[in-house]
Amino acid sequence: MANKLLKKALSALIRNSPKRIRDSFLRSQLNLQPLPNDITFEIAQSQSDLDQAFQLLHDAYVREGFSKPHASGRRVTAYHALPSTTTLVAKYKTEVIATISVIRDGPFGLPADAVVNLSRFREEGQRLGEVSSLAIKPRFRGRSGEVMFHLFKFMLHYSMYYFGLDRFIIVVNPNRINLYESILTFERLQSTVVESYAFANNAPAVCATLDLTRLEQTFAQIYSGRPAHQDIHHFFFGRYSPSEERQFHFPQRSYYMTLDPVMNPSILNHFFNECTDTFCTLDDRKVKILQSIYPEKDYNSVWPFATRPEWQNQRIHRRFDVMCTASLPARPQILTAVNILDASRNGLRVRSSLPLQSEDRPIFQIAVGPQKRSCLKANMRWQKGTITGLEIVEADAGWTHFIDHMEDRMAQTAQSTPQGCDR
Question: Does domain 31-249 have CATH number 3.40.630.30?
Answer without folding.
Answer: yes
